[in-house]
Please model this.
Amino acid sequence: MTNRTAKTNRKTKETDISVTFNADGSGKTQISTGIGFFDHMLEGFAKHGFFDLTCNVNGDLHVDGHHTVEDTGIVLGQAIAKAVGDKKGICRYGYFILPMDDALALCAVDFCGRPYLNFDCTFPTERVGELDTELVREFFYAVSYSAGINLHIKLLDGVNSHHMIEAAFKAFAKALDQAMSFEPRVTDVLSTKGTL
Model:
């Protein structure tokens, strides 16, 4: 097994971000985005996906959280793509339905190289802590396009925004871990085209 660890950086006039992502970790994290609830979601993502994740973000939070959240998604997606590499031997697909109290979230992932996001989630509140709930979609959109994955996230039930968002992040973690896992019967890439 190769070392599937990637480091990515991105610096603009709006954000300065560095991410280290280990696909074969144990859930260790060092997260600092300046948005407490977003930190909590990324920590849960890493813990439940068994990813080691370091994420340091300095963003223009005096404007709002949009650039910080979206750009973090871009850089994390780039790190995921870099870590998975040529995709040889991986399952390619992953899916999970995750319950969290009142919330029930479904997530499906395909490492097909054709980015797409289907995000069917509506939250009852506009904010959780310092995170605007509309930015959850922006984060997953950025991850899906930067990682080159087909990503479907659907909330099947829920009344509490905190639980609903957390269920979505954890379902994504579990589905991603499954999709990135090695399958011994796959000797090249899992595609009739011979490439992903």
User: Anything to note?
Assistant: The chain is about 35% helix and 30% strand. The chain has a mean pLDDT of 97.
